[in-house]
Amino acid sequence: QYSPSLAAGLEFSLPLRGEQTSLRGELFTRADREDRSRTHSDVRELFYEALDERFEFRIGARRVFWGVAESRHLVDILNQSDFVEDLEAEHKLGQPMLSLKLIRDVGALEFFLMPYQRARTYPGPNGHPHLPFPVAAEEARYESQLAQSHLDWATRWQQSFSGLDYGLSVFNGTAREPRILPCLRRGSGFRGTEERANCDIASGIETPTSPLPEELTPILQALGLAPSDEAARAEITRQVLANLVLVPAYDRLRQISLDAQYVWDQLAFKLEALRRESRGVYSTATVAGVEWSLGDPFGFGWDLSLLTEHLSDSAANAARYDDDWFAATRIGFNDAAGSQILAGAVADHSGNDRFYQIEASRRLGDDWKLSGKFRAFGKIPADSPTLFLDQEDLFSLTLERFW
User: Fold this and answer.
1) Is 57 exposed, middle or buried (0-12, 13-18, 19+ CB in 10 A)?
2) Residue 217 has pLDDT above 70, yes or no
3) Tens digits of per-residue pLDDT, 255-279?
4) Which of 86, 160, 204, 336 is least enclosed by beta carbons within 10 angstroms?
């Protein structure tokens, strides 16, 4: 499927009083011919900042990135993912927040207050990836009675010394990644769908409270005046599938995380680890690996790096990252156009459920940039919840113009 789109962005920085205070912004919009859900606009950033040698204060919409790993940004928690832009959560929505960073000789301590949670975006029926059922984002469930208006907070400590950079973070608020609930569509005629989608499917399709007398049912079926039991079950199944939607459920989340990178000669050792609690269930996750910078081993004038990482996650819904390995190669061609390529793959411990990706970019003159991405899924087990990705390989080509 070919799906052209047009996107535009605007970045600006306006000094307000010397170099210590400013207004910074990044606006984004996209129009997509095939996927109406991908036609959207967002204030990626729009905030006021005041900087000093001892503190940094910011208020407004921002994007804040945490982490050091390549395969999965495990500890990056503050911003919501823009799934209509990228399935791998590389693009983030702007998050309203207030932050204060205290800078001292022993490190930096930053506090965040976030008064509103951004809901995740999803592709439409004609978008990529093609989901097995429609997503009813407007039916989203929230554990907090305040829904998206729950006041979230986070804090982060950062320190660097002797080749080691690390950050220790705490987050308490509404989860950015939702659970996905299969539900019966609002207004579908099933029980409990009069006011909103019914996520208790069993109650929606249960038999009527006053069924036909058992002795009368076979007589009506024999006369052709009532469907057979098998036909009735098949018809109910057809109606359920025709009215099934996926509803995001955002739980409360408490999380403590660590990200660290230690550089020793040509090696960079990387670690992201966390412990989280949601709905009374505790889980842990890690991404640990190494990047080896080989320089120019073949005399081509290229910079070559090899990367490998192990991913683990004990959460029940972490099917893609429960025990996986990532391997990749990064090549920088050291030319005037800044050409570079990153090719890698992720596979689980059994070698199944593989994921391949190649990213490349190159400047064209002073004002243009050409980027390409290829993504493919292979050997997904038939019982995997990600089976719908089996036919969702992607090749994208992006041409950017800068002014």
Assistant:
1) middle
2) no
3) 999 999 999 999 999 999 999 999 9
4) 336
What are the structure tokens assigned to 389, written together?
């990705």
Q: Is 81 exposed, middle or buried (0-12, 13-18, 19+ CB in 10 A)?
A: buried
Whether residue 293 contacts residue 303, with contact meaning beta carbons closer than 8 Å, is answered with yes
Contact 58, 52 (CB under 8 A): no
Cα–Cα distance measured from residue 380 to residue 311, given in angstroms and rounded to the nearest whole number: 18
Query: Which of 258, 287, 263 shows the shortest CA–CA distance to 275?
Result: 258
Sheet of 244-250: strand order equals: 141-142, 244-250, 179-184
Angle value at C-alpha 292, between 289 and 297, nearest 5 degrees: 155
Predicted pLDDT of residue 206: 63
Average pLDDT, the chain: 89
Q: What is the pLDDT of residues 220-252, one digit of tens each?
A: 556 565 566 676 667 777 888 888 899 999 999
Question: How many whole angstroms separate alpha carbon 179 and alpha carbon 137?
Answer: 12
Determine the average pLDDT of the residues in 177-197: 91
Instruction: Count CB neighbours of 395 within 10 A.
Output: 10
Asked if residue 388 has pLDDT above 80, the reply is no
b/e code 147-173 from CB counts within 10 Å (16+ = b) = eeebebebebebeeeeeeebbbbebeb
Pick the closest to residue 342 from 307, 310, 376 (CA basis). Answer: 307
Q: Within 208-263, where are the H helices? A: 217-222, 229-242
Give me 88's structure tokens: 């791998």
Enumerate the β-bridge partners of residue 289.
270, 309
According to DSSP, the residues that pair with 48 across neighbouring strands are 23, 59
Residue type, 80: Q
Q: What is the pTM of this model?
A: 0.87
Q: What are phi and psi of 388, to 5 degrees?
A: -65, -15
If we measure between CA atoms, which residue out of 117, 96, 115 comes closest to residue 45? 96
177 and 118 Cβ atoms separated by less than 8 Å? no
Question: 22-38 b/e with 16+ CB inside 10 Å = b?
Answer: bebbbbbebebebbebb
Q: How far apart are CA 168 and CA 274, in angstroms?
A: 10
pLDDT, tens digit, for every residue of 71-102? 999 999 999 999 888 877 789 999 999 999 99
